[in-house]
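To the wet lab folks,

You asked to see what we're planning to order before we commit. Fair enough. Below is the target structure as tokens, and below that is the sequence we designed to fit it. If anything looks off to you, flag it before the synthesis order goes out.
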């Protein structure tokens, strides 16, 4: 499930900060994907998430963990590894 909050950047007309909250069900994951037009910064609220970006090694992020994506970042893996709990970021 994804919820979005959008905030205008007052000194950059027409630009916004979009703050999604993504909830992964137990053993949930996303398909490989690219965030082509945005820089992203994420913080894990609860649970644990495996992330594999570009040619980087796979990483594990737990509660409070923060990760970033640059433009054209390619996600190969984004999985909830907390079984049977939900994870949020």
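Sequence we intend to order:
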């Amino acid at each position: 499930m994804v919820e979005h909050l959008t905030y205008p950047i007052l000194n950059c007309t027409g630009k916004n900060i979009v703050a999604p909250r993504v909830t992964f069900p137990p053993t949930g994951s996303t398909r490989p994907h690219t965030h082509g037009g945005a820089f992203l910064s994420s913080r894990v609220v609860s649970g644990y998430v495996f992330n594999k970006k570009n040619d980087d090694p796979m990483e594990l992020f737990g509660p409070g963990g923060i990760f970033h994506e640059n433009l054209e970042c390619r996600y190969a893996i984004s999985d909830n590894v907390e079984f049977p709990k939900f994870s949020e970021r």
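Structural context that might help your review: The mean pLDDT is 82. Residues 44 and 65 are 5 Å apart (CA to CA).

Thanks,
Computational group
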